[in-house]
Write a structure and sequence with these properties.
Shape of chain A: globular
Strand content of chain A: 15-25%
Largest sheet of chain A: 5 strands, parallel
Oligomer: homotrimer
Number of domains of chain A: 1
Number of helices of chain A: 8
CATH superfamily of chain A: P-loop containing nucleotide triphosphate hydrolases
Radius of gyration of chain A: 17 Å
Amino acid sequence: MGKRVVITGVPGVGKTTVINKGLEILLAEGVTYESINFGTFMFETAVQDGLVRDRDEMRRLDRTIQKRLQKNAAAAIGKNEGNIIIDTHCSVKTPKGYLAGLPEWVLRELNPDTIILVETDEDQILMRRLNDPTRVRDMDSAKEILEHQQFNRSLSAAYAVITGCTVKIVKNQDYLLERAAADMAAVLR
Amino acid sequence: MGKRVVITGVPGVGKTTVINKGLEILLAEGVTYESINFGTFMFETAVQDGLVRDRDEMRRLDRTIQKRLQKNAAAAIGKNEGNIIIDTHCSVKTPKGYLAGLPEWVLRELNPDTIILVETDEDQILMRRLNDPTRVRDMDSAKEILEHQQFNRSLSAAYAVITGCTVKIVKNQDYLLERAAADMAAVLR
Amino acid sequence: MGKRVVITGVPGVGKTTVINKGLEILLAEGVTYESINFGTFMFETAVQDGLVRDRDEMRRLDRTIQKRLQKNAAAAIGKNEGNIIIDTHCSVKTPKGYLAGLPEWVLRELNPDTIILVETDEDQILMRRLNDPTRVRDMDSAKEILEHQQFNRSLSAAYAVITGCTVKIVKNQDYLLERAAADMAAVLR
């Protein structure tokens, strides 16, 4: 049985960059991981099952059906035998508040060994978001980003209690990507 | 099926004022909510069942019986079909430590869509408590109020993982009640 | 049925000293507690069952077997009828991240009445660790100690939601051991 690692981080923290750099390091050592984006995987499964045609339909699904889709996607991913990285949200910030990315029914199916939180100072995240031309939606203040990261830590504590997984905080600070990638590789190795 | 929203906040944060103002805004739009105080509801059920005659007896009940009362009250509230606001504590500060207001057996019966934490800066809460002539019990310091609010956030993260509900933080800052009420109405709308 | 109190604290916080002083106060009042170290108890059970011969073998056990050992140890402790103190970790800091000391399967068997977090300022803990000649492993910075204590608070919130136990924070500040012991005795009394 391989390792199952969930990787999360608020938008703009540079999660994907850290994952790619970290996997490069490991690949050079002969360690391989399959990388799965939870949202994409769930969407593709829903399309195959004829439940939706696009992402918009996905969002408009009834809560009970969404829950079932999440559970099924998690169960399918959980059957994977090799090393996998599951790229997902610790929480999603919605107009109605924070939504846990790994509610209990997802968590119990995924049964991860480790959850990694990629973090950095809230002002660095703010500046990265300001410099991202593809980002058009409402901006969070630095204080709100801090609140979001803190809430993610609290969520990850609940994840750890339910599954027994470890929770690792990997800092992706400005100018220190190499270090973040090395820290991530050390957890995945 | 209506919306089920749990509203919490430490003593002195002005939770009831925000609820009333928020519901006024919604009523003008034709949106109605039934407001239920969890503690009162539970007490009245216990009186009807002949288990207690007053609040003091309630507190002295055996832990197992209290748990059953909580569960039954939550189940009865959970059967409600319309929009409901459940006014309760995220945690109660007791001499033995913080007690979760929504332990698992309550949470699973209530199954809320959203939990709202009404918060403000700890020094504002301290001043509001100092200016409340009805408050006679031991005073918490600003640091202790901060600790309480932070613990409530951590609790709400666990609530979110178990139920899949969203967690919304609504700030009720000095001189900004209108904004707090508007924020609350936006979640309940 | 006696009281079941779990006591935790990061290394260097002085947990054992506070426990001993607190139990002294209670003993003078005729209140007695049996003190159980969770790790030691689990290890001794594993030796008796012929599963391991030393602590190193313990650490190398398969995750599933470790989980079963934890569960069995918790169940055996949970059967205890008298007042017990369970001395354990809120979380263990491992190279793969924080590991919950009381994952769900342990928690449900122990079913504690109260979890006590012994804490103090991170710089005080840092200095205590620096002055401990038996401590040879990598040092955490003050920021890392802060992070660890905060994560323990979040974990304890999840513990509280699952079991309904109270969570009490007892400060063990420099020069104020007497106060810490008195605070602990007040919870155990």
